[in-house]
Amino acid sequence: MTSTFTSHAGGGPGAGAAPPAVSATEVSKVYGSGDAAVHALRGVTVGFASGAFTAIMGPSGSGKSTLMHCLAGLDTVGGGRVTLGDVEITGMSDRRLTLLRRDRVGFVFQAFNLLPTLTAEQNILLPLQLAGRSPDRAWFDRVVEVVGLRDRLGHRPSELSGGQQQRVACARALVARPEVIFADEPTGNLDSASGAEVLGFLRTSVREMGQTIVMVTHDPAAASYADRVVFLRDGTIVTELYRPTPDTVLDRLKSLGG
Ligand SMILES: Nc1ncnc2c1ncn2[C@@H]1O[C@H](COP(=O)(O)OP(=O)(O)OP(=O)(O)O)[C@@H](O)[C@H]1O
Ligand SMILES: [Mg+2]
């Protein structure tokens, strides 16, 4: 599998004709009603390229997690459409969405969500086991190599550092070869060295395995590992940046007043 990242290098937005791995079209989402209504998303249209690492940034409350949950089929939209690959997921039944998430999407959250009684290897293989799929051993070995956890596979989460635990969570998401991995503040609970470890791994999985990743983060340094950053404010996408650096991300955030 090759990454489409290189197709961005010269072109920026619009380069490469491959359809996005996941996209939102005019997506809106309102929580509550009447005076208490919160317009979390106000007509968001955005696509996330296959084989690319995209960060979503914006001030607290701007709708980042809501957008990610709608893209991942964890939450329903109020209006508009979400498409995963060639499938429109808007309006799908809960049952179909559950299967779709299980088979085609991976998640990494701020809390590592590892099962404490299982070893690292058992945690990594759990989603496949639950889905009744047998692991592809060669792929498992490759993932373990990329995350650098070969000598930690027999350890339980309590015997691992925070960074190692989050890398186990990343490997768990990756081993099922999902079409997209969604990560919400994956380095939010980590010190900067462990965070860099996890982000480096995520970037490697994009470059070397062609993984598609959409990551929400507050941290300009974290966002600079991505190929592209989209910025939300008040429930709409206001700007985007290709080939971000911590400084260009920070400048853009300042101009948003976030
Ligand atoms: N379940 C809910 N019920 C009511 N309002 C909600 C709910 N979830 C989110 N909101 C509101 O929707 C808006 C967007 O929230 P969201 O969690 O998407 O923001 P965010 O950009 O992820 O913020 P943060 O950076 O703080 O995580 C906020 O105003 C929030 O208070
Ligand atoms: Mg959030």
UniProtKB/TrEMBL annotation:
Enumerate the PROSITE patterns for this protein: ABC_TRANSPORTER_2
Region Disordered, residue ranges: 1-20
**Keyword terms, alphabetized:** ATP-binding, Nucleotide-binding, Transport
Q: Which terms does the record give in the GO molecular function aspect? A: ATP binding
A Pfam match is ABC_tran
Question: Boundaries of each ABC transporter domain copy?
Answer: 22-253
The name of this protein is ABC transporter ATP-binding protein
